[in-house]
Amino acid sequence: MTRHSTRTSQGTQTMTTEQMTGAQALVRALENVGVDTVFGIPGGAILPAYDPLFDSRKVRHILVRHEQGAGHAAQGYAMVTGKVGVCMATSGPGATNLVTAISDAYMDSVPLVAITGQVPSKQIGTDAFQEADIAGITMPITKHNFLVTKAEDIARTIAEAFHIASTGRPGPVLVDIAKDAMQATCTFEWPVTMQLPGYRPVTRPHSKQVREAARLIVEAERPVLYVGGGVLKAGASAELKVLAELAGAPVVTTLMAKGALPDSHPLHMGMPGMHGSVGAVGALQKADLLVALGARFDDRVTGKLDGFAPYAKVVHADIDPAEISKNRHADVPIVGDAREVIADLIVALQAEHEAGRKGDYTAWWRQLDAWRTTYPLGYDQPEDGSLAPQYVIERIGALAGPDAYYVAGVGQHQMWAAQFIKYERPGAFLNSGGAGTMGYAVPAAMGAKVGAPDAQVWAIDGDGCFQMTNQELATCAIEGIPVKIAVINNGNLGMVRQWQTLFYNERYSNTDLRRPAGERPRFIPDFVKLAEAHGCVGLRCDKTEDVDDVIAKAMEINDSPVVIDFVVHQDAMVWPMVAAGTANDDIKIARDLAPDWENGD
Questions:
Q1: Digit-coded pLDDT (tens) for 261-300
Q2: Which of 13, 58, 129, 195 is catalytic?
Q3: Is 129 assigned a catalytic role?
Q4: Residue 503 annotated to the active site
């Protein structure tokens, strides 16, 4: 291996030139872009990369038990660190097992680089052993992807992949590398010159559009700041608080924006959408102006689209121009980074106030407060004395506190985690919002704990979700990743069962996960024994009076992963609810019980 270093023309960086293999160039490039953790599993086509990775003193490789777990772990790591998450897999089934996590990252705008091995370049297209066109497969669900067949292209491609994944609207990028490219010798040069013609994300908003948005805010009688996950991605929570308080307008935060404004803030109306609060849903429905910031008007928020916010003009700010007017026409479109947009909007709104133009929302807040008071989030205790899942989640949030990270799977427990844990800081809640991926919680919590080792990380999972990726408990135990996992065990696919109760005449087709054997119920599997078999601590709780003690016991254990099997009532439901395909005006606060919009005050 030969080395040659020269000073660049700018005199600010040393140019390094070395002879090495493509695999060594891959690892060196990963080190140079700042990667410290890779989640993955080796296999034939990616094996050349694992040899130099073995020698790296900068990159920790965490050997997962399934490639989907690697992808979700990389997501969790990315979401708590703000860095690009990295996962690695071999060709064919290794690569295709990453597809679910890649799709999840694409829907939720998570910066991710997935590196896959590919069969040797001369065998591509021949149906070689473990060949799959992963670049073609993932084209619709990646921000960009690369197929690399030359060793000399590897370093530059890695630099480009990380730049694309982390700039503009974040998202996943796939780098598929042929095995012979990793085995060949090349000249490694760093830094590299990226070749990305046409990739120029717009971050600075148009000042005229921002001024028009400010004018609409002061002229409106019933404005709402509709805040999406883009505000968190942009790190704009502080700016959002300033804007909200300056405007005096209500704020709703979507599932992906929980914590963007503290739940306890008096301007915060809660989460809108299918299982949002009545106050948040009502605010959107009766608004005369929506200021959408980093939100995409998805169906879970809007309900039946032609019935959504029928009286409202729309200001829509997003860094992705493809989102503007995609689902709802924007009267004032603003393309730009949410932090830049909000900062400029603050200045424009201050100018309006200084000119004597300020909105009067007194009547609007009278109505909003009436809804908030009349229809608070709540739940009933089961009449048979069994454990209420909402209570369990509420107590976890209260005892673990606002500094913990909470990672939810998908389904009823996800919605209860959004409703009954109070999020006081940005980024504290991780979940699969757009894709709705069962199996997300355990590996994502693992990745989050790696990214934030000093923080308490709770996975709140359902018994159905948990059984999809719980093999990563072994990874957590072996790698020393002490996450805490609360399994909300109702013995069913809970959200599907809820829909069967409400819309399918209580015909529970294939949702029962724990059928009784003889006259006594059996735990299949027994999650306590399963946890212990994976090297974790297993606990069980089925009584309300024991919940706090069990949570406290779990919190005292910091040298091992902990799994708590909370056995809860099987018929608990998530309320409020807007049934799929109906308008938000048809929200139900309980079965056959709707709010009285006109007489809420």
A1: 999 999 999 999 999 999 999 999 999 999 999 999 999 9
A2: 129
A3: yes
A4: no
